[in-house]
Design a protein that fits this description.
With 322 residues, this protein is mainly α. The chain has a single domain, classed as ABC transporter involved in vitamin B12 uptake, BtuC. Helices cover 77% and strands 0% of the residues. The protein has 14 helices and no strands. The model has no long low-confidence stretch (mean pLDDT 89). It is found in: Cell membrane. One of its GO terms (cellular component) is plasma membrane. This is Iron chelate uptake ABC transporter, FeCT family, permease protein. It holds the Pfam family FecCD. Its main location: membrane.
Length: 322
């Protein structure tokens, strides 16, 4: 059954990519593209190709980060949003826009503040005695998220209302409409740097589900693995936030969906989360572009889809899954 599910991803992915090429405000056919029609070629290389690649990277990166956080913390309720990584990165980007910094510096700010948020959530949860550590971690993340969200509001309050405020507000909604091939060349670097280590150590995430002493007897340095997961997952989240704004619920919902399809083994779960997250984001972005005459901000649409879907997952949860 898993083989059928595995091979279904390929035709579904190809179909979605072909539909994404053709659909949009300026519709083109595959024949026009094949015959090198000037209009079709311009639309493809300037609009469709950057957006398709961006959607695949964004969905895959957020899903991989979410699955990695869940494995490291042994908590199925955490994600970049819940742990405060997205809120911390948002604060870093807002400060960068306020100070008119260049893109690379804004990315650095997003990463540093996202890292501070995740580590703070983790440290606070470890200091609070409670019979349910999963709940404490979620509550700690919500606390840190609230602090950084307030920080973003403060930045919006003090910034220029005619220039910086609209830029920050529009960016917070999340979207891929402004992504170009030039942006992708810069954005893909931190995504690759975050993805490769996580994929290389994905089998060790299974060992983190064991008790600490048992994991160490297997020769795994759990502290080092946790540091790698936190840094790489936060780098993925921050790089997405710095270019595309806040796109929520992907890192929470997609790992759950993937786990229900392929099981909890992280050797399979992590790459599968990347693939399913990529296709999910491509589908949602197509809806954002084509549902109405005006494009819907991607962050709004992922929330509208993700929240009820996650509620459905919670209601129909399987034993040993959540």
């Amino acid at each position: 059954m898993n083989k059928i599910k595995k091979y279904l991803i390929l035709p579904i992915g190809i179909t979605l990519i072909l539909l994404s090429i053709c659909m949009g405000r300026y519709s083109i056919s595959l024949y026009d593209l094949y015959s090198l029609n000037d209009k079709a070629t311009a639309v493809f290389f300037n609009l469709r190709l950057p957006r398709i690649i961006a959607a695949l990277l964004v969905g895959g990166a957020l899903s991989t980060a979410g699955a990695s956080y869940q494995g490291m913390f042994r908590n199925p309720l955490v994600s970049p949003d819940i742990l405060g990584a997205s809120a911390g990165a948002s604060f870093g980007v807002a400060v960068g826009i306020l100070l008119s910094l260049n893109v690379q510096t804004i990315q650095f700010f997003a990463f540093i503040f996202g890292l501070i948020a995740v580590i703070s959530s983790w440290r606070i949860s470890r200091r609070i005695p409670h019979h349910d550590p999963s709940l404490v971690l979620v509550l700690s993340g919500m606390l840190i998220q609230g602090i950084f969200t307030s920080g973003v509001s403060l930045v919006k309050y003090i910034c220029d209302p005619y220039d910086k405020l609209p830029a920050i507000t529009f960016w917070l909604m999340g979207g891929l409409s402004s992504i170009t091939l030039k942006d992708l060349k810069v954005m893909i670097v931190p995504i690759i740097l975050g993805l490769i280590p996580l994929l290389l150590i994905r089998w060790k995430l299974n060992i983190l589900s064991f008790p600490e002493e048992e994991a160490k007897t297997l020769g795994v340095n759990t502290d080092r693995i946790r540091i790698i997961v936190i840094i790489c997952s936060t780098l993925l989240s921050a790089s997405i936030v710095s270019y595309c704004g806040v796109i929520g619920w992907v890192g929470l919902v997609i790992p759950h969906l993937t786990r229900s399809l392929y099981g909890p083994n992280y050797k399979v779960l992590l790459p599968s989360s990347f693939l399913i997250g990529s296709l999910y984001m491509l589908l949602v972005d197509d809806l954002a572009r084509c549902m109405f005459s005006v494009e819907v901000p991607l962050g709004i649409l992922t929330s509208l889809i993700g929240i009820p879907f996650f509620a459905y997952l919670l209601i129909n949860v399987k034993k040993g899954w959540l």
